[in-house]
Amino acid sequence: MKTVYTKIPCYSGDVSGAASALFELGGMVVIHDPSGCNSTYNTHDEIRWYEQESLIFISGLNDMDAIVGNDEKFVADVVEAAQSLHPRFVALCNSPIPYITGTDFEALAAMIEDQLDIPVFYIQTNGLHDYVSGAAGAFAAVAEQEMIQPIKTKPHSVNILGLTPLDFDAPGSAASLIQKLEASGWQVVSNWALDCEPDEILQAGSAAVSLVVSSTGWEAAQILKRRFGIPAVAGCPVGGFAPLVIDAMNQSEADGKNRIPYAEILSAKTNLKPETAVVGEAVGAASLGAALALDQGKAVQITVPTESPAALCPKASRTDGESAIEDRINRADCVVADPLYHTLLHRDTALVPYHHFAFSGRIGYDQAENVFEDSAYQKILERTENGSIK
Amino acid sequence: MIQLAFYGKGGIGKSTTVSNLAAALAEQGHRVVQIGCDPKADSTLNLCHGRRIPTVMDTCRKYNDDFKLSDVVVKSDIGVYCAETGGPVPGVGCAGRGVISALEKLKEKGLYEALSPDVVLYDVLGDVVCGGFAMPMRRQYAQTVYILTSGEAMSIYAAANIAMAVDRFKKRHYAGLGGFIVNRYHNEEDIAQAAHMADQFNSSIVGRLPDDEMVKKADQAHDIVLRMAKTSSLAEKYRQLADLIYRRECGAE
């Protein structure tokens, strides 16, 4: 029963994560699922859906097709759509029904690729994991594609990996991040993948460093390291933590090693009672927590309820289940979290809203903050210092 | 690494044949893994002297994911590593999905890296009744399917159905058809019947194993021919067939 959620929602599912990661990359995403589910994956979980065009389809799987294994119909439909829409690639996503019936998506992808002259790949979603898992799988699949070729490394250039509106929902987040990196002398080669140009991805092999701004980009970063030797730095340049991220990027460019600069800051005071807790996806929450710890000189506790890789989660921060989250975050005086976490807080614990689209979608979206802007970060810092909203 | 899947009508002698082939390959110095893909979980029973080994599905049911590869893979005294996918309790759940999950779990637990097998033999339930039982044919698993049959009409009918499935799966880049093994044949008529069917699939008979009392005796003793009657002519036939299949798969035949 420990994984039953009665007070807070669960995070967006893996299929939504995959669709979000690929939304702007010019491919065709096909989710093998009954008709009607597109609203779950996209209209509810995708803030860009009404503003921006993307080739995301639901196969309209019905019970008889699932029972008799009518995969040929799926293959024919995908081929026909791709031949008329000319996407850059086709990505197939699994969902609970074909997952349970054991549909072989690797084979379907091969069958479709045999009939098209573009890459066709499978992203291992099944509706049983959260968005981090799906988006990570999607970025990883892109990173493996041959369309990204080794190119001569450009000094002081960076790939931004793991940027999706499920984690960075405030308008202008991508522009602010890019501006911050450029102001520090770094040229952005590719942005995976928010407010981006699909062609940028093709240049990813030329970056000196990958900056992983959410857990969704870590696996892709490791693939780019394996394929092109590009080291990864995990962290978001926010508040007083930003110079440390830039320092880590400089060091990684010099020695080719991966770095997670928030790890040391957050482990420095783990034996103290936390005054502030930050809840969210590992890299975003830990970066914000590191900034608050540096700027306030206080112990900050991180709680990661998402399926983030262990390497990115500060010590003991990965927390499963509503009651475990509740126990953990109420040890702090003030909790920086999505506003819907207020239902878990005890009377004396203050909440500083930090909207997370993958958690609450459009509920409270007007409170979304672009933390790459110093003014937005300052607002969170001040609210945290004041023990803000009860 | 060579990976082979064995199919055929239920009761035709797949487990007996695969176990003896596995033992013959192990005798030749190869590192062999035999995986039973049947909820009955009796593929490796005789390799293990009648001892039932913990199946992957039972272990998952008991411990969820909290177990090691060594909890579900047992090395028999003849040198073959044995695993059984197992399945749901009879009458409930989904046996095909069980095979898929179990094979994925073995992979996830590092079977192929940890054991570095030279040969993996998948002994699959009687017929390709659903997608789950086609799992061992999938691209990342077996490269070749061998179908067992006798000369009896129902057995040949089942073998033809399996061969049709293998043919249909070509466009999915699945395993190819290696050929037919005629098991428990009584006379040349049995062989002729099977050969006629093989012709229809542009395939051939790769092995013929007679109906031999020794198989029954070994089975009653929860043993295999290659251990119980290692110098018998039947044991030699298993060795020859194992050698032939191995050489074919290596491209030497």
How would you describe what is shown here?
- By secondary structure, chain A is α/β, with parallel strands linked by helices.
- Chain A has 16 helices and twelve strands.
- The model of chain A has no long low-confidence stretch (mean pLDDT 93).
- With 253 residues, chain B is α/β, with parallel strands linked by helices.
- Chain B has one domain (2-249): 3-Layer(aba) Sandwich (Rossmann fold), CATH 3.40.50.
- In chain B, 39% of the residues lie in helices and 19% in strands.
- Chain B is built from nine helices and eight strands.
- In chain B, strand 3 (74-75) and strand 4 form a beta hairpin.
- The longest helix of chain B is centred in the C-terminal third of the chain and has 17 residues, at 233-249.
- The two termini of chain B are 17 Å apart.
- The A-B interface holds A 69, 100-104, 106-108, 110-111, 114 and B 94, 96-97, 100, 130-132, 134-135, 138-140, 169, 171-174.
What is shown here, in short?
The complex is a heterodimer of chains A (390) and B (253). With 390 residues, chain A is of the alpha/beta class. Helices cover 39% and strands 13% of the residues of chain A.
The level of helicity of chain B is 25-40%
Strand content of chain B: 15-25%
Query: Regarding CATH, which class of the largest domain in chain A?
Result: Alpha Beta
From the alpha carbons, calculate the radius of gyration of chain A and give it in angstroms.
21 Å
SSE blueprint:
The complex is a heterodimer of chains A (390) and B (253).
Chain A: H1 14-22, E1 28-31, H2 38-44, E2 55-58, H3 63-68, H4 71-85, E3 90-93, H5 96-101, H6 105-115, E4 120-123, H7 131-143, E5 157-161, H8 173-183, E6 187-192, H9 198-202, E7 209-212, H10 218-228, E8 232-234, H11 242-255, H12 262-267, E9 276-279, H13 282-296, E10 300-303, H14 322-329, E11 334-337, E12 350-353, H15 357-360, H16 374-385
Parallel strand pairs in A: 1-2, 1-3, 3-4, 5-6, 5-7, 7-8, 9-10, 9-11, 11-12
Chain B: E1 2-8, H1 14-27, E2 32-37, H2 56-63, E3 74-75, E4 81-84, H3 95-108, H4 111-115, E5 119-124, E6 144-149, H5 153-168, E7 176-185, H6 188-200, E8 205-210, H7 213-220, H8 225-228, H9 233-249
Parallel strand pairs in B: 1-5, 1-6, 2-4, 2-5, 6-7, 7-8
Antiparallel strand pairs in B: 3-4
Helix pairs in contact in B: 1-9
